[in-house]
Amino acid sequence: MTREMTGAKMLVQALRDQGVDTVFGYPGGAVLPIYDEIFQQNEIRHILVRHEQGAVHAAEGYARSTGKPGVVLVTSGPGATNAVTGLTDALMDSIPIVVFTGQVPTFMIGSDAFQEADTVGITRPCTKHNWLVKDTDKLSTTIHEAFHVATSGRPGPVLVDIPKDVQFATGTYLKPSTTASHYQPQVKGDIEEITELVAAMEKAKRPIFYTGGGVINSGPAASQLLRELVDATGFPITSTLMGLGAYPASGKNWLGMLGMHGLYEANLAMHDCDLLINIGARFDDRITGRIDAFSPKSTRAHIDIDPSSINKVIKADIPIVGDVAHVLEDLLKVWKSRGRKTQAEAIAKWHMKIDTWRKVDCLAFTANENSIKPQHALARLEALTKGHDRYICTEVGQHQMWAAQYLNFEDPNRWMTSGGLGTMGYGFPASIGVQMAHPESLVINVAGEASWLMNMQEMGTAVQYRLPVKQFILNNERLGMVRQWQELLHGERYSHSWSEALPDFVKLAEAFGAKGIICKDPADLDDAIMEMINHDGPVIFDCLVEKHENCFPMIPSGKAHNEMLLGEAETQGVIQAGGAVLV
Amino acid sequence: MSALHIKKGASKHSAYNLRPTFSDVDERHTLAVLVENEPGVLARVIGLFAGRGYNIESLTVAEVDHTGHLSRITIVTTGTPQVIEQIKAQLGRIVPVHEVHDLTVEGASVERELAMLKVVGEGDKRVEALRLADIFRASVVDSTLGSFVFEITGAPDKIDAFADLMRPLGLVEVARTGVAALLRGD
User: Fold this and answer.
1) Residue B95 is nearest to which of A129, A306, A316, comparing CB atoms?
2) Domains in chain B, please, with CATH?
3) Of B144, B99, B94, whose CA–CA distance to B7 is shortest?
4) In terms of CATH architecture, what is A374-544?
5) Please, are residues A395 and A445 in contact by the beta-carbon 8 Å criterion?
6) Are A321 and B8 within 8 A, CB to CB?
7) B19 touches chain A (CB under 8 A)
8) Nearest residue to A416 (alpha-carbon basis) of A73, A52, A86
9) How far is A70 from chain B (nearest CA, A)?
10) Which residues of A touch B98 (CB under 8 A)?
11) Which option is the CATH number for A191-358: 3.40.50.1220, 3.40.50.1100, 3.40.50.300, 3.30.540.10?
12) Between B11, B39, B86, which is nearest A320 by CB?
């Protein structure tokens, strides 16, 4: 079906045809024709954020909690440049979002016009792909292609830049076509490679699954197949920060998160395993620690949809390019057809070995009587919310690592955190996007006060749309992770890592028309958390915690998995010159 | 284009060798990249090399299929085998990139480059320049009483050799096109 319409109308029609129900955005001169079309319809909800960065993170939260692409609409120039951090964040974490930017009219491009920026130039390295549309007739097909590229293969952010004259002009609208785009990444894994992995699994005495965000991105079927595979083989499983929830934390083979602040048992199992099966992860430097000491005794299998992830950091002995769900389906088929073999006896011994590491109880802490330990706050949050239909977002820093350690995730798409880019200010707008997608669910943003302040303007959005997001701020009046590194690495010289003029968060909440709760006594914590949960509206929870608590366990920079620090006593002089240059 | 047709992301039968043996010795590879002829595609390729710190020794680009809107970029790059594999995989990720071929590993290939050299001089030097140009099969495309512009085509090392000989004879300016390359045979 084809129809004549203006470019602005086309955009709205294309969103409808792509099944979009929510757009996060901020108007401006170069997108006014589109906003005029949005005004004249009721199918697509537009959420007015308070800053374009917030719009992109909200779209990321929406995308990660639903599996559908998040959509953003912002104006030219500053609207586009403010979106850059969110685009980079989505690129690093492979989150499908589609960003529409207004642009000055085509005949003014290159003239340094008001609010002109070279948006496709600026965003070229921080999008999976981007387009400048100079012809209204090409607008609809470009938008459909943008959704296809954002969601196919390894997902990622895309951007469509639309000059204002293209929005006003009339052209022919085309529906999403059934003809294939040339961009068709391979999803089926090579069956010979899969068979080789099965053969390795049959022989493995100390195997481990190491899973990542690729499992979540592959969709619910991938998590289901992963669970079936883990339970059928009895192999232990650990996950990156990005992959939490793909395998349930209550599952009997679960080791917890691995990496720099991962669990002792997970990291030691990675170090000692003889078969490492990477499913949808990318051997990030937070995971591997020192490369030449990484998992020295193992055969490494790597399943990834992006060929550039394979051999980038760690050489793969068994490389499999494909979508996780497709590969796991074939893997299970082949393994079953060959008689479901594993070295059951050796694997039982392997689990016993892991249990000795687990007994170290690396997350143990002693709660104080007169001050709240951040770990205690999260342990209580977990205990009081685990029965709920719950989504967790985080900002970036110590609180993020503690949240990953002390909160348990039973399902995929329940955990939204900035992994690759480490964007402070991510969590609050992300929680808004999650709440939009799941209006009845309990959405909590575990935050640090410094991160949270970076996008605090979004309180206006939360209040305007009555989004009952819970901002659970672990307030230590410090940039906790920076402070921790300065303590370990820079002779306890705490250069600019504390805030001297923090707001009164209760008053701040009230100023926005929301509820504020402050808690500093461990005895009041449970009641205060319950008050937060039961309040029907946005809440800022100012949880005053111990100011100098460090995040453990920790693999210091430049060290191997088996050189983990478990607590304060071991920290003196651990990071040497070679490690100090690493971030 | 060569007979080798690859799908992006293919793990076998492709330019991407996912089971390389890595050494840390730098190698020189010539890559042929077939791309959609659309605005910004060269910037994407160059941005990839700049952003990830890869080397470009030579890069040429031109449309090769007008009806199919395809351009061919020929890149000469150096790096360890691991880096070369990364370059190819990263090029393959770029959405408007259709095919990536490593001419250095896919079979024997021919490489040619065109250069123009301006040589200024008089007397014996001028005669000697003309004589050497004849030996290298370079042709004179412009001449004044005090200068020649030579045009020479050949593999990059032949052009290097010619330029080296011209230098003492009054070489003042060189323009080179960069390498174009094709696989040999059918």
Assistant:
1) A129
2) 27-107 (3.30.70.260), 110-183 (3.30.70.1150)
3) B99
4) 3-Layer(aba) Sandwich (3.40)
5) yes
6) no
7) yes
8) A86
9) 20
10) 182
11) 3.40.50.1220
12) B11
